[in-house]
Design brief:
InterPro entries: YeaO-like. The protein is of the alpha/beta class and 164 residues long. It folds into 2 domains: 4-116, no CATH class; 133-164, no CATH class. It has helices spanning 49-54, 59-73, 79-91, 107-116, and strands at 4-8, 19-22, 40-41, 94-98. It has a 4-stranded parallel beta sheet, with helices on one face. α2 (59-73) packs across α4 (107-116). The mean pLDDT is 80.
Amino acid sequence: MSDVRVHSIGERPRPTRGVRVLVERSLPVTWARAPVRPDVWFPALAPSASLRQRYPATEWAFGEFADRYAAELDEPGRQAQYQLLRDLAADGPVVLLVSASPAHLTHAAVLACRLRRPVRAARPPEPEGGDPACWAGLVCPECGRIPDASTAVTCWSCQAVTAG
């Protein structure tokens, strides 16, 4: 599980270790006097302007906002930066920086929850083909079934004589 924290860029800095990642579409207005400076900036991971305007940072609206933002994260244009962020989180602690406050009601909180989930391992490919031995010689030529081993001379299904 990844160590991912969320912090508002305008708040007094807390003693935290890790790569500081700004996840905003544009630099915050308070950038010049911000006490915390980011190490990396991923603007593609910010929510769309329409989503941000539609849902205020309140607890009653956060659930629906989180669902819609999670759907936005699955868009192809965001996947490259999301994968870079996931790789950073796998290497060590990450602090997600946002300009809004309270930070726990922002898109960064949704992103942090998603980064903390373990990545599903890809399933190995299914082997091609069937059994390694050839069963063609055991198939009844009349009905296509495989006769029982105890009655190898006649097929149990159609009573045809088989090569047993």
